[in-house]
Write a structure and sequence with these properties.
By secondary structure, this protein is of the alpha/beta class. Strand 4, helix 9 and strand 5 form a beta-alpha-beta unit. Helix 3 runs antiparallel to helix 4, helix 5 crosses helix 10 and helix 6 packs across helix 8. The longest helix is centred in the first third of the chain and has 26 residues.
Length: about 220
């Protein structure tokens, strides 16, 4: 049987190949993909996040752990999406890290979990301008955008995006924010529709805002 504690430790140490192999092993043992995601990967990254916030580890260690997580995510993703059964009628959401910010670990996790929940995800990557958000919404018929920022110097751009959507008569599009420096209060302050502290909460927020029933 899979030892999730060992898997968490290997992820923490940035051992991407063993993490990938253990993810494959867990699937082969018939474990539920969402269970593997939560207990094997997310739990390990939570420790990484906590240690990073308290300066116990630094950016190089975080990047190694993120690479290990992505290796496991790559194995899980097809199973999560298949299980969700999202089709052409799936609701479209657009994700992006705001202009000036190059951090994408949290956003990538949100995207994968949203796909696992049946959404169609358009990921614009990092350093995303208001214009690119608007263009993607129009091109793909998206009903919601999710913005992330890790820096206090870039979180202020979120207000610019919200204002740009109103100016473009796209006020019906739901706007969600996330990232270390932002909060529910900040979401209200800039006129966003919601804030999520982590990927799982983000997916539930998307469902609520778009009227998607659980399950």
């Amino acid at each position: 049987m899979i030892d999730y504690a060992l898997m968490n430790q290997l992820l923490f140490e940035g051992k991407h190949e063993p993490v990938r192999q253990m993810t494959e092993q867990a699937l082969a043992e018939g474990l539920v993909p969402m269970e593997i995601l939560e207990n094997g990967l997310i739990r390990g990254m939570r420790v990484v996040g906590e240690d990073f916030r308290h300066n116990r580890i630094f950016v190089p260690e975080v990047l190694l752990a993120a690479r290990a997580m992505k290796a496991g995510m790559a194995v899980l993703k097809p199973h999560l999406v298949d299980k969700a059964g999202g089709g052409s009628d799936a609701k479209v959401i657009v994700l992006g890290t705001v202009k000036g910010d190059l951090h994408d670990i949290g956003k990538n996790l949100v995207g994968m979990m949203a796909e696992g929940a049946g959404f169609t995800v358009v990921d614009l990557g990092t350093d995303t301008s208001a214009e690119r958000f608007i263009e993607a919404v129009k091109t793909h018929g998206a009903e919601l955008i999710g913005m992330s920022a890790l820096l206090t110097t870039t979180m202020i751009y979120m207000r610019t995006v919200v204002q740009a959507f109103k100016a473009a008569d796209l006020g019906q599009v739901k706007i969600c924010i996330g990232g270390a420096p932002v909060s529910t209060e900040y979401a209200k302050e800039i006129g966003a529709d919601g804030y999520a502290a982590d990927a799982a909460t983000a997916v539930e927020l998307f469902k609520t805002l778009l009227g998607v029933k659980a399950g």
